[in-house]
Amino acid sequence: MTSSMDTVKPIGSFLQTDADGFIVNTTSPEKIQSVWLPAVEMVKEAYQKHFGEHLHSVYIRGSVAKGEAIDNISDIDSFAVVTLPYDDIDTSWSKDFVREMTTQFPFIVGVEIGAIPLEELEDHKGDRIMIKTQSICVYGENLAETLPSLKPGIETAQHIKGIEREINKTKEWLQEDHTDEEIKRRCTWIMKRIIRSGFELVMERSQKYTRDLYPCYEGFSEYYPEKKEEMYEILKLAIEPISDKKKIVMILDNLVAWLVEEISKVFKKN
Fold first, then answer.
1. Bridge partner residues of 79 (DSSP)
2. For the chain, where are the alpha helices, taking DSSP H only?
3. d(CA 107, CA 36)
């Protein structure tokens, strides 16, 4: 399937589960590599400076939290939980901050900045899963300690129930005028959602959990080998997107009708 020139690399992993099948959060402050520690501290201080008394907690996720960050490839994925409503959250400072960070730490590709209202966390399943299973708390009260443990399955599915809506919205969006770069970004975004939705079809059967794209593709293909090649093309487009609107729509149409039908079968009891 792959070749020496292929952009798809078999990287990523499934999260560990314990003897009872619950997902184990293997991230840890102690795993942050020493060269990345000053940068993480700077991120934490930026949230403290800009949110002040409204800052509840700060989290780091991704390769940095797992101790697997790679110089000149990895970025810092971070987010804060704040005691503010969405309308009052201002992250306009983040662009200048990211510029400052990448200047001071040139081995960092970028920094993801975001904020989640504490009072709305109950309604945001994906954020709760992210805090519980994939993040470390570097400031404030660690909400992971109060959240229930999770098993792979319907309770950890984040994309699948909205995938048909998002695909239709993307097809409508593609009928409008956009730059090639905007189309490529949208292509990457929707293809990632499809890959993760495909894996969510089989999470409960496989008793595995991941957001990493290649393991999602592998897990899906194990149960749906007849759709392996189609999902591989979608994986390639997530990594190396195109700006050809007609081709994107054709690819969406080819797999999505089947995907939506299969979702209704797998989740019909839910």
1. 59
2. 37-51, 63-66, 94-104, 125-134, 163-173, 180-200, 203-206, 213-223, 228-239, 245-266
3. 9
3-state secondary structure of 241: coil
Model confidence pTM above 0.70: yes
Three-state SS letters, 154-195: HHHCCCHHHHHHHHHHHHHHCCCCCCHHHHHHHHHHHHHHHH
176, burial (CB in 10 Å: exposed 0-12, middle 13-18, buried 19+) = exposed
| Cβ neighbour number for residue 246 with a 10 Å cutoff | 8
**Cβ pair 138, 59 in contact under 8 A:** yes
Q: In whole angstroms, what is the distance from residue 138 CA to residue 180 CA?
A: 38
Encode pLDDT of 158-167 as tens digits.
888 788 899 9
Q: Which residues pair with 60 in a beta bridge?
A: 78, 136
| For helices 163-173 and 245-266, angle between their N-to-C axes, nearest 10 degrees | 160
Give me the residue label for tokens 């996720």: 61
pLDDT in tens, 117-148: 999 888 888 899 999 999 999 999 999 999 99
Question: What residue ranges do the domains of the chain occupy?
Answer: 29-145, 154-266
Q: Which listed CATH number (3.30.460.10, 3.30.1360.140, 1.10.150.20, 3.40.50.10420) goes with 29-145?
A: 3.30.460.10
Token output for 270: 């839910």
Tell me how far apart the alpha carbons of residues 135 and 142 are, in angstroms, rounded to a whole number: 10
Angle at 102 between CA 39 and CA 53, to 5 degrees: 50
Q: Give the amino acid at 256.
A: V
Q: Which of 128, 45, 117, 129 is nearest to 81 (CA)?
A: 117
